[in-house]
Specification:
The protein is an alpha/beta fold. The protein contains 16 helices and 20 strands.
Length: 470
């Protein structure tokens, strides 16, 4: 795979400060496919200084011009969609058809949405005898995960640019090649030097240096709740703002009046997408006790069609996990589920292939709310099916974790489902299979995070408020 041996800082590819490198491994073959620089605190400092120098000019650029640059960025990514899809498949292991349909396409739509918002957003309003200004926060440190490598970059960079902020991106070390393609698109889009910078490196070194840098005004992080706590503590010590999109253990609540077959099929699809490596995945399926056995049978039948294998195979629906550590983590949770008394319906901890970080699509039944697999984020293709006695019991189970990122409710009509959803402690709920909306705010309650991404609410994260009285 194509890889840059330098960092994108100040509008150019610059040699890294140190000699260290990071090997990029194809998780389907376990082969090294590229190497990228392992950024140091010195590299991060250079990127932050470039962003700080570029900030005054970009902050005062007219919103219409910022919108034009975002449109150019959208077009530059769209022109690279095939290359982006192939790269995501190579370094993440996502099935190629998913990489084309989601990984390479959704970021284009999100960038386009922020181009429109930059041109139309009310950055100034009159309230009584005050003029209220919405001004950019400043320099943003964006620390992004590997599971949706381009989407998570764009979901941070696009609103930051629309707001007038400048950005330093530290992508996940497992998926740096996609970030480098993004940097190429930034350059082609004609963004001023220093407005967007990309530094590859590990979280422990480059990520920590970025979060702690005294000249970073806001840290936007997506990843585990454990790391989010560290980011929050680091930022809090400096009284700087944070936006944290963290873990999830989302409930898929199937009420008795729902179309059970449709709800179960959609629920299985949601959990298996991206090999289960989705923070908002509906990993807990809640079914009324009267229809529980029927739901378990339907889930097992649905999972049978999810073939794990070569991501380039058109029949492949589940690729490998991103690395050996993640594979071992998921296997450990499957073993724990069995040890704690859950019934393994299909799948299991034994990998289906000798090569590649694969996990067989797995379904557990007879899961109780206190079990580890019902409380903790697994981040793999593992579905837990829980039973409930009545609606209040379902609500108690749905709200009974430390997370609150997403969820779903199915019922005979939308109003019944929405009434239940209003009582759920979670940031986003799909009603009867509601479609993804790139303009709707996304983010969590409780330990699932702080702040929101996407749409106008995502833009507001990168703005601060000033009032002028006259």
């Amino acid at each position: 795979m194509k890889a840059h041996s330098s960092m994108y800082i100040g509008g150019e590819w610059r040699p890294a400060a140190g000699p260290g490198t990071i090997a990029v491994v194809n998780p389907a073959t376990e082969q090294v496919i590229a190497e990228v620089p392992a950024g140091t605190a010195e590299d991060v400092d250079a990127a932050v200084r470039a962003a700080r120098a570029a900030f005054p000019g970009w902050a005062t650029t007219a919103p219409a011009e910022r919108a034009a640059r975002l449109t150019a960025l959208r077009d530059a990514m769209a022109a690279r969609k095939d290359e982006i899809a192939e790269t995501v498949t190579a370094e993440l292991g996502a099935p190629l058809r998913l990489s084309k349909a989601v990984h390479a396409s959704v970021p284009v739509a999100v960038a386009g949405s922020y181009a429109e918002l930059a041109a139309s957003y009310a950055f100034e309003e009159r309230i009584g005898n005050s003029t209220v200004l919405m001004e950019p926060v400043g320099v943003v440190g964006a620390i992004t995960p590997w599971n949706y490598p381009l989407h998570q970059i764009v979901a941070k960079v696009a609103p930051a640019l629309a707001a007038g902020c400048t950005v330093v991106v530290k992508p996940a070390e497992d998926t740096p090649l996609t970030a480098q393609l993004f940097a190429e698109a930034v350059h082609e889009a004609g963004l001023p030097a220093g407005v967007v910078n990309v530094v590859t490196g590990t979280g422990a070194v480059a990520g920590q240096a970025l979060a702690a840098h005294e000249d970073v005004d806001l840290v936007s992080f997506t990843g585990s709740t454990a790391v989010g706590r560290l980011i929050g503590a680091t930022a809090g010590a400096a009284i700087k703002r944070v936006a944290l999109e963290l873990g999830g253990k989302s409930a898929n609540v199937i009420l008795p009046s729902a179309d059970l077959a449709k709800a179960v099929k959609a629920g299985v699809a949601n959990v298996m997408t991206n090999s289960g490596q989705t923070c908002s995945a509906w990993t807990r399926m809640l079914v009324h006790t009267d229809r529980y056995d029927e739901a378990v049978e339907a889930a097992a039948a649905a999972v049978a069609s999810y073939r794990a294998g070569d991501p380039h195979d058109e029949l492949c629906r589940v690729g490998p996990l991103v690395n050996a550590t993640q594979q071992a983590r998921v296997r450990g949770y499957i073993d724990k589920g069995v040890a704690e008394g859950a019934r393994l319906v299909t799948g299991g901890a034994e990998p289906p292939y000798d090569t590649g970080y694969f996990i067989a699509p797995t379904v557990f039944a007879d899961v109780t709310p206190e079990m580890s697999i019902a409380q903790e984020e697994i981040f793999g293709p593992v579905l837990s099916i829980l039973r409930y006695e009545d609606e209040e019991d379902a609500l108690r189970i749905a709200n009974g974790t430390v997370y609150g990122l997403a969820g779903a409710v199915w019922a005979g009509d939308d109003s019944e489902a929405a009434a239940f959803a209003r009582r759920m402690d979670t940031g986003q709920v799909d009603i009867n299979g509601g479609r993804f909306n790139p303009l709707a705010p996304f983010g969590g309650y409780k330990q699932s995070g702080v702040g929101r991404e996407l749409g106008a609410h995502g833009l507001a994260e990168y703005l601060q408020t000033k009032s002028l009285q006259f």
